[in-house]
Amino acid sequence: MLTISNPTIVARDVTKEYRSRKTLFGKSPAPVNALKDVSLVASKGESIGLIGKNGSGKSTLLKLIAGGERPTKGEVRVSSQPTLLGVSAALQSQLSGIKNIELGLLAMGLSRSQVKELSPQVAEWSDIGDAIERPMKTYSSGMQSRLKFAISTAVKQEILLVDEALSTGDATFKQKAQERMERFIEGAGTVFLVAHSSKTISQYCSRAIWLHKGEIINDGPCEVVNRQYDHWSRLVSMREYGKASGFIVRMKRENPLNKVLFDTEAAKFMKSYEP
């Protein structure tokens, strides 16, 4: 039984399929499962890292939580609209950084007077200097990352989803971002962070979820899940593919976490969203 208090996100038996276009011969390729029977519960105050190699389903899961896509099967419920922050997040490239700040804050529900008061603080925190007046299309990827993070975390959000956005930027920015994330979590927010590196997950998160080919391999304390993921990664890097596959099978057998048993709090949460 998974004990839950104050759930903010509940996903139950979620599958996401993508279908390719028909081939030249008119045949429809088999659908690809980006996620398969994924279940999880997140609570206020949790910082959760999603780890796995490219194509494991991490970004797809965040998109489903954010509501940008719908699951093929299963359901995802959230207590409030999540904020999705990613390095590929859309920006108005022709507009200046300060204009993007203003538009971003307005989109987050702030009044014009609040935007006027808060915009200079966001600009200062992003630490991109006079470039704040230049069009976004002139920015480096690191500058864009800093500005996106500054906008998305300017207002306390109940749910923040971070997709690789902390993988860019210099050491000073990463330190500032970590401190800001810690303050956010202390304010009873829920954070999901996607990263390829277990070290990054350990820096920011207390819980980790390892995804592989769309399935949860393990969900638990960072130090445990990261150790397992790093061991599997070493086997793959040494081309010990048979041992790596066997390790995945063993982890799934020892950690049957996809079959989450929802306790009373989570069940009430799901029922409150029924039509």
Ordered list of secondary-structure elements with their pairings:
Elements: E1 7-18, E2 32-43, E3 47-51, H1 58-66, E4 73-78, E5 83-86, H2 97-107, H3 112-126, H4 141-152, E6 159-163, H5 171-186, E7 190-195, H6 198-204, E8 207-212, E9 215-221, H7 222-237, H8 241-254, H9 264-271
Parallel strand pairs: 3-7, 3-8, 5-6, 6-7
Antiparallel strand pairs: 1-2, 1-4, 8-9
Helix pairs in contact: 2-3, 3-4, 6-7, 7-8
Order of helices and strands: EEEHEEHHHEHEHEEHHH
Per CATH, the class of the largest domain reads Alpha Beta
Number of domains as seen in the coordinates: 2
Q: State the secondary-structure class.
A: alpha/beta
Based on the structure given, which CATH architecture of the largest domain is correct?
A: 3-Layer(aba) Sandwich
Binned strand content: 15-25%
Rg, Å, rounded: 20 Å
- Provide the residue-averaged pLDDT: 83
Task: Kindly state the number of beta strands.
Answer: 9
CATH superfamily of the largest domain: P-loop containing nucleotide triphosphate hydrolases
What does the main sheet amount to?
Answer: 6 strands, mixed
Question: Spans of 5+ residues with little confidence (pLDDT < 50)?
Answer: none
Question: Please, how many helices?
Answer: 9
CATH topology of the largest domain: the name is: Rossmann fold
**What is the first-to-last residue Cα distance?**
27 Å
- The portion of residues assigned to helices is 25-40%
Q: Tell me, briefly, the overall form.
A: globular
**Strand order within the widest sheet?**
5-6-7-3-8-9
